[in-house]
C-alpha cells in the first residue's frame, strides 16, 4: 500500500516595512504592502509533516505534540481546504493521479522556538503547513501562488514562502488573487545581512496581532496617513536600498517603519503598548552606536525593529555583529558567555561585553541578568525546504512520533 506523506520546513520572517491592518479580515487582505527579511532555518524553523490516507476519519493537526482543534471556517481549515482544491485540479487534469484530495490529512508540526511569543511562529508555521501539503500533493504551484494560501492562515506567513528579501504586494482585487508575496532579492544577493534577536520575553503576548491591528484600523487616524502617504514610498525606497546593498538606507527605513508601527499602536483607542523599558533601552543603544559611527564619518551600522511584542531584532552587516553583541551583553548581562553559531567570538564566547570608543554610556542604564533572556544570532536565509522521508514527524501509524 502506498504511503502519501511529505515533510517540509519553513523559515521565520521579520518585517522591515510592517503589515498592520486588514481591509478584509476573512481573506486576510492588508491595508498596505509590507517587506521582510527571511531568517535562516538552520536556526529558527517550523517543520511539518502532512499525510493523506483513505483510512483517516478527519483532518487532524498536532502542534508541538498537542492536538489543535481545526475549527470549521477557521484559518487552518481554510488553508487545508484551499490546498485540497489545488490538488483536485491536478487530479482533474490527470486521471491516473491518486485521489488524495478526497482523503483526510494528518498534520504534525514542531517549532524549534517558542510559539506565540512574538517570534513570528504563525508565519513559519503556516508557510511550513502549505509547503508540506504542496509537496504531498505534488502541486505545480509557484511560491507566489502558495503565498496566496499561506496568507489566509496568517498574513505575514505569505512572506515565508521565499528566502531572502520579500515583498507582500497588497493588491487591489476584492477576491485577494493579487495579494501575494514576491521575491525582491534572493538570499545570495546580500548574504552578509545578519540578525540578532534579543528575546526580552518569551511569554504569550497580551494583545494579539490579529485583534490589535483591527482596533488600529477602526480607531487610528495616523494609520490612514501611514497607508496613504508613507508606506508606498518606503516600499520603493527600501527595495532600491536592497538592490544596491545600501545598508545605511535599509537601516534608516527599517527603524523609521518600526517606530511608525509602534506609533500607530499607541494611536489606537485604547492604546496598545508592545515595547517595554528593555525594548526602549535597546533602541537607545543602537541609536548611540550609529551616532558614534556617523560622528566618525561612517554610516549606520545597525537597525532595530520590533513586532507586536517587546523582543528586538537587530539587523546588521556581519562585520558589525561582534561589536553589537558586546554592546548588548554589556547592558544586558547573560547568565553564561554568549556563544554564537558563526564562531565570531572563539570558544570562550562573549562574557562581560564592551563599548566602542566614543560611546556615551549614559544613554541607557544597565539591567540585571534575565532582562534579555536569550540572544539568537542568525542571518538572512532561504525559503521552504522539502525534507527527506527520515525526517518525518508522523510515524507509520499516522500519529506523531515521540519528540
Ligand atoms: N508550526 C505551526 N503550524 C501551524 N500553526 C502554527 C504553527 N506555529 C504557530 N502556529 C499558529 O500560530 C499561532 C501563534 O501566532 P501568533 O500570531 O499568536 O504568535 P507569533 O506568530 O509568535 O507572533 P507574531 O506573529 O506577532 O510575530 C499558534 O497559536 C498557532 O495557531
Ligand atoms: C507586527 C507584525 O508582525 C504583524 C504580523 O501580523 P500577523 O501576520 O501575525 O497577523 P494575522 O494576519 O492576523 O495573522 C508585522 C509584520 O510581520 O509585517
TrEMBL record:
Any one GO cellular component localisation term in the record: cytosol
Residues in Mvd1 C-terminal domain copies: 195-387
Key words of the record: ATP-binding, Lipid biosynthesis, Lipid metabolism, Lyase, Nucleotide-binding, Steroid biosynthesis, Steroid metabolism, Sterol biosynthesis, Sterol metabolism
One Pfam family in the UniProt entry: MDD_C
UniProt domain Diphosphomevalonate decarboxylase-like N-terminal: residue ranges: 10-181
Gene3D superfamilies: 3.30.230.10, GHMP kinase, C-terminal domain
GO BP of this protein: isopentenyl diphosphate biosynthetic process, mevalonate pathway; sterol biosynthetic process
EC number: 4.1.1.33
UniProt GO MF annotations: ATP binding; diphosphomevalonate decarboxylase activity
Pathway the protein contributes to: Isoprenoid biosynthesis; isopentenyl diphosphate biosynthesis via mevalonate pathway; isopentenyl diphosphate from (R)-mevalonate: step 3/3
Superkingdom of the organism of origin: Eukaryota
Coiled coil start-end: none
Catalyses which reaction(s): (R)-5-diphosphomevalonate + ATP = isopentenyl diphosphate + ADP + phosphate + CO2
Family to which this protein belongs: Belongs to the diphosphomevalonate decarboxylase family.
Name under which the protein is recorded: Diphosphomevalonate decarboxylase
